[in-house]
Amino acid sequence: MANVHLRPGADRRSSPLCDKDGVLRSGTVYKAAMTATGSSGCQFYEFVWCNRAPPRTQFFTWLLVQERIQCRVNLLMKNIILDATCEVCQEAPEDCDHLVFRCPFSAAVWATLGVDTTDCRVPKFQLSPDDINSLDANNSVNDPVINWVFKDLMSNLERNGIYDVLLMDPSLSYLMLFDPDDSAKATEAQMLSSCRLVLLPVNNNSNPDQSGGGNHWSLIVFDQWTQYGPRLLHYDSADGSNFNTADRLANMMQRHLLIGTADLMVVRTPQQGNDNNCALFVIAIAKSICSWCERAAAGGQEADWSATLFREVDDAKVAKLRIELHKRAQRQNNDEGC
């Protein structure tokens, strides 16, 4: 480095990924990566980007179809507000669909423009063809499938008035492991500590530079709901093979959580009969726990979900779940749209 001499003038950039003004555009990099890897486009690509709308409108639409705009339901999930009720109409939770179509104010705007929105709705999170194919028999299920089901489970909980249960995007728990910024980890952990129940999918990918790596999923449950909490539980359908990764994540959480917790507890878990069903077992266990949440909120007397877990999760039921999810994903991707 001592032999490198910087010129006093402006930089001369010749990267093919820069625009005419010399600015590096992430969109160009993204398109090049997608082309190089042969990745298939998502279902809403043409609707969002192939039009004459201003870039900001396109970006808002991109957020909207993924339900990532800052509506009150999303703000409540992030513990920024305490109530998701629409402030305009006071009639329903303000999710993306309510904000754009269902609120009387929004409906009146569309009616004034002469647009019939009776059958319109905000497209829900959709899976790519590759994600749907991962639900074929004997395939390992992609992590977007976990996220897709988790979003649906959280929506069901919210419809039952349960807003303090968080099912984390698989990528977020991965970032918590490899993000070098301790302050970011502390912020994430503080957000988790305000929830009664948090479900974190854990993947054994040990390479932070390799997207989609790893070959096994398990589930950490942070429980502040039951009388046994606070506690950190680990559910692993492959005889504890993912414990080391889960323990690293649990240790990171323990350093930053605002309350004290015991060490990560290895919980007796229904076991998978092949090498391809770990993600589906995570989904099935999460579904069973969410069912308990709904029963508990309705006055159920079960101390926790352990009594029903083995009745609701086994190889046969997981095989049936794979078929059901495959059909539902295909149907949704065929039917979505306004």
Major sheet summary line: 5 strands, mixed
Helix proportion of residues, in percent?
A: 40-55%
Overall radius of gyration = 22 Å
Taking strands numbered 1, 2, ... along the chain, how are they ordered across the largest sheet?
Answer: 1-2-3-4-5
Q: How far do the termini sit from each other?
A: 58 Å
CATH class of the largest domain reads: Alpha Beta
CATH architecture name of the largest domain: 3-Layer(aba) Sandwich
Strand content: 5-15%
Coarse structural class = alpha/beta
Total domains? 2
Which regions are unreliable across 5 or more consecutive residues at pLDDT < 50? Answer: none
Organism: Panicum miliaceum
Domain Ubiquitin-like protease family profile: 125-289
Family: Belongs to the peptidase C48 family.
Keywords: Hydrolase, Protease, Thiol protease
What does this structure look like?
By secondary structure, the chain is α/β, with parallel strands linked by helices. It folds into two domains: 26-112, no CATH class; 129-335, 3-Layer(aba) Sandwich (Adenoviral Proteinase, Chain), CATH 3.40.395.10. Helix content is 46%, strand content 7%. It contains 14 helices and five strands. Strands 1-2-3-4-5 form a five-stranded mixed sheet. Helix 5 packs across helix 6 (104-112), helix 8 (143-159) runs parallel beside helix 12 and helix 10 (182-193) packs across helix 11 (243-256). The radius of gyration is 22 Å and the shape is globular. The termini are far apart.
